[in-house]
Amino acid sequence: MSAGLVASEGDVNLGSERARWQETSLGEAGRWLVERDAAVFVRQSLSSPCLAAIRRAEGIWIEDADGRRYMDFHGNSAHHVGYAHPHVIAAIHRQLDALSFAPRRFTCEPAVALAERLLRLAPGGFGKVLFAPGGSEAIEIALKLARVATGRHRTLSFWDSFHGAGFGAASVGGEALFRAGRLGPLVPGDAHVPPFACFRCPFGFPSPSGAPELERCRMACAATAEYTLAREADIAALVAEPIRAVPYLPPPGFWPRVGAAARAAGALIVFDEIPTGLGKTGRLFACEHTGVTPDILVLGKALGGGVLPLAAVLARAERDVAPELALGHYTHEKNPVLAAAALATLDVIENEGLVENAAALGEYALARLQEIAASRRCIGEVRGQGLLIGVELVTADGAPAPQLAERVLYQALARGLSFKLTMQSVLTLSPPLIIRRDELDQALAILRQSLDAAVAEGDR
């Protein structure tokens, strides 16, 4: 969500921590380009003005305009195979030489091959595909398809979720930044319920042990969704992240219970795996952790290999019920270059064992971070799945610690590590799946040093 090195929900304005980092870290080349950028781009939260400028991206690294290098544990969730992977770049070059564009009404070999391959890889039951230029558009295709397939128009989704920036996608999303009152009315028919978030349970059942206390809460989050689905008779689709990109993991049994409630209500299940799919969680598809296969599955971000924008909507064959409508109808919906990049990305994920690498290194990173947390009271919880990991920072009384999180972020940038802040005080670590263990150790050492430096700075 950011054109700069990092996007943070705390970076709505140019805060003192950020300004100080820019003052000490930007050289002449970087400052000049950031100032030019600010002069011509519309200002918006999370991206403009930018933090810095980059001139090179390769593997797990980005390099700014003044030559400073950063391990990128953010990457807008698009860099699963790293930046500028040779296999992806070569495939794009070959396709540009062979066939660079396919107008609508015509098909091409790469687009058909990509659709066939995604259907082979996905959990059972999917039979049809549509491509879109980005995740927001793909979510809106899914919403249209759900409306037509069910004859209903309403949706149920979760507060604090992000499903895209378009009006339809923002309507089912739950982030305030994309639903602010100044935008005016969004698409009608959206209903929201509190999300699963065991450490910050919206129902007041905190989990200081780090494990969901299901005996106490009786899975209130699932019960609320279940209750709403039973009483809202015109829900076309439940739209959700199977694993929240914050990250937050669903409590055990959450999705089987909510999925059953959706099926009983006649609502389709739409899983948004735009940031979490394609191996990030240690399984090729995040829904494989849940025990529930959705009716519609949306992929994006990493599908383009960290080079080109591409998203995909996978649907069960019986949901192919709108031949008379234009559900997507995008200029680049069967673009051969985009498809070639995605096919090459899938090659890399499979041939280099990146799903297995994410599972193994994710388990290792969580154990290391738990060791770091054991002696640091500022860490409330460490959680994650695969190489999607969150470190939640807290104050002495257990409240969120956004100021500390901002200090940690800029301390880490100064040491060469970039990551994202979410929910104000969660350090979200999402490295490329190609990362090696020694590189991961280097990043974790930087994080530990940055935490200690930020705490010491706050005590002064």
TrEMBL record:
Keywords: Aminotransferase, Pyridoxal phosphate, Transferase. Belongs to the class-III pyridoxal-phosphate-dependent aminotransferase family. It comes from Candidatus Defluviicoccus seviourii. CDD domains: OAT_like. Gene3D superfamilies: Aspartate Aminotransferase, domain 1, Type I PLP-dependent aspartate aminotransferase-like (Major domain). GO terms for molecular function: pyridoxal phosphate binding; transaminase activity. This is Aminotransferase class-III. PANTHER family: AMINOTRANSFERASE, AMINOTRANSFERASE CLASS-III. Transmembrane segments: none annotated. The keyword Transferase applies.
